[in-house]
């Protein structure tokens, strides 16, 4: 079983990567294969509603082949679950995350439906709740089971890598990974435990 993780941050090795990498490492410790793709700073177009992806019912690709969308689309076909990560920009997911996910789901929805998905949002201070819900809205109308954690999948940090110091955020990522591997194993009839692994709660308050 394989989970595809995609970071929509333009900042390679930044906080979105840090959070997703915590999910990735934990999935691997649970015996799940992973691939983490960072979109980086290259542009990703938005959907132009041309309908070209649906003209040939067997194609399942966006007409624009000049960015990473179709590469991810191909990877999605062999993935069993997904984690999409985005930095919060002005209280919502960044434009790259929205553009990519909308084109993926519209052009190749069959590669996503009935596969578990989670989103991860990273911010300095505020707006992550709205960004989180906005991301889930896209998956919720595509028959994708949403995997949850012990809290919303949010990590806090501003400068590159600061999110690693958000100890509760990192625990939320590990719990998410355990829940996702558990769900995948249940779906595929490979679960060896009734419930997923769970760490003792390790809260981190803003004022300390
Ligand atoms: C254009 C822009 C808008 C941002 N808007 C917000 C915001 O609304 N709320 C917030 O808490 N942080 C905001 N931030 C800060 C980033 O979310 C934060 O630095 C995050 O850690 C970046 O993740 P990355 O390292 O993966 O790129 C913004 C950053 C940029 C560049």
Automatic annotation (TrEMBL):
InterPro entries: Flavoprotein-like_sf, FMN_Rdtase-like_dom, ISF_SsuE-like
Keyword presence, Flavoprotein: yes
Source organism superkingdom: Bacteria
SUPFAM superfamilies: Flavoproteins
Pfam family, one: FMN_red
Domain (NADPH-dependent FMN reductase-like) ranges: 1-156
Record keywords: Flavoprotein, FMN
GO MF: oxidoreductase activity
PANTHER family: NAD(P)H-DEPENDENT FMN-CONTAINING OXIDOREDUCTASE YWQN-RELATED
Name of the protein in question: FMN reductase
Source organism (scientific name): Prevotella lacticifex
């Amino acid at each position: 079983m394989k989970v595809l993780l995609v970071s929509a941050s333009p900042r390679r090795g930044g906080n979105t990567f840090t959070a997703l990498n915590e999910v990735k490492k934990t999935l691997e410790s649970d015996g799940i294969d992973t691939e983490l793709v960072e979109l980086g700073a290259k542009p990703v177009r938005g959907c132009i509603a041309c309908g070209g992806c649906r003209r040939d019912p067997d194609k399942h690709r966006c007409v624009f082949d000049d960015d990473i969308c179709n590469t991810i689309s191909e990877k999605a076909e062999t993935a069993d679950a997904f984690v999409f990560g985005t930095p919060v920009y002005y209280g919502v997911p960044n434009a790259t995350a929205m553009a990519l996910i909308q084109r993926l789901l519209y052009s190749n929805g069959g590669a996503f439906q009935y596969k578990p998905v989670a989103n991860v949002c990273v911010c300095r201070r505020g707006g992550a709740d709205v960004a989180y819900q906005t991301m889930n809205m896209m998956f919720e109308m595509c028959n994708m089971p949403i995997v949850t954690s012990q809290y919303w999948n949010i990590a806090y940090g501003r400068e590159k890598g600061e999110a690693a110091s958000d100890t509760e955020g990192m625990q939320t990522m590990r719990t998410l990974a355990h829940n996702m591997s558990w769900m995948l194993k249940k779906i595929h009839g490979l679960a060896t435990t009734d419930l997923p692994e769970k760490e003792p709660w390790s809260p981190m308050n803003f004022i300390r």
